[in-house]
Amino acid sequence: MMTREICQFCKRPIPYTCICAALPSKPIELSRARVIVLQHPNEQKRKNASLPLIELCLKGKQSTNHGNDGVCDENGDFSLEIIVGRWLGEGIVDSNVWKLLNDPNEPLFIFFPLVDNALSLEDALLARKHNVQGVIGQDLQPVVSTNNTERTASTTTTTLTTKINLLFIDATWKYAKEMNAKTVQNGGWPQHAVYIRIHPSTDYSDNSFKPLRFDIRTPPSRDHLSTAECIAHALGVVEESNELFNALMKPLEI
Question: Full-prediction pTM beyond 0.85?
């Protein structure tokens, strides 16, 4: 039996399933956000996973896109980091990333809609703009300074120029629920983090957001997005770029 030739970039058979033509000409570097993915170990074994499509587009530590080794940039920053584990803290986490996640001055949005206090991404960004901080397990409450005085304009400016850290759970819905519960149980989520939901059927009454769907893993409803779709949508909003959203979604069309 003749073996199929595999593309060295996207790791898919040539020519029928190779997606290189749909990839950006060079890895995308984010200016306003970082993507951090907590990935269930089983997802690494799935041939129909959507996260590898994002890896091929973004410059991440563990990405192999277009021969890039995925190292941090000259400032030690990154666009994509993947943490493999069943809860945050179980697997090996880069010490710099762990410090970043637990820094209360670093905004952290956790995309997990199955909690009562999850906010829409737009509401969370608006709350951040007005100096409001979220706490896991609690409603959003205004940040109160230690000296009971209002924050200065310079402090606000510093906060708003900080990148937003977007954390996604890459797993089946069953495992995602278990991973969130286990992380909460072990105190893994930083207390300053905010739960975020993406809910197209209610957030976009005009049907302006139309996910392409990851057809080989059919979701149970319009509001169940693949990891790639969720990341693409979130980055399009945070980076304020429809061009970025389309670039990340294009490989899903192949």
Answer: no
The CA–CA distances, whole Å, from 12 to 35, 104, 254 equal 24, 41, 12
| Site of tokens 């990839």 | 23
Q: What angle do CA 191, 55, 238 make, to 5 degrees?
A: 50
pLDDT tens track for 78-134: 899 999 999 998 877 888 899 999 999 999 999 998 888 899 999 999 888 876 655
83 φ, ψ to 5°? Answer: -115, 120
In sequence order, the 6+-apart residues with CB closer than 8 A to the CB of 108 are 101, 164, 165, 167, 190, 192, 193, 194
C-alpha–C-alpha distance, residues 25 and 123, integer Å: 33
Distance, C-alpha 138 to centroid of its chain: 22
CA angle (183, 185, 188) in 5-degree steps? 40
User: Distance between CA 179 and CA 192 in Å, rounded?
Assistant: 19
| Of the candidates 12, 46, 24, 21, the residue with the CA atom closest to the CA atom of residue 245 | 24
DSSP 118-157: PEEHHHHHHHHHTTEE--TTS--EE---TTSSPPPHHHHH
d(CA 101, CA 83) in angstroms, rounded, equals 12
- Distance in angstroms (rounded) separating the CA atoms of residues 172 and 213: 15
Return the axis-axis angle of helices 153-160 and 121-129, rounded to nearest 10°.
Answer: 150
Residue 123 backbone zone (phi > 0: left; psi -120 to 50: alpha; other: beta): alpha
* Closest by CA position to 79, among listed 145, 27, 11: 27
Q: By the 8 A CB rule, do 199 and 103 touch?
A: no
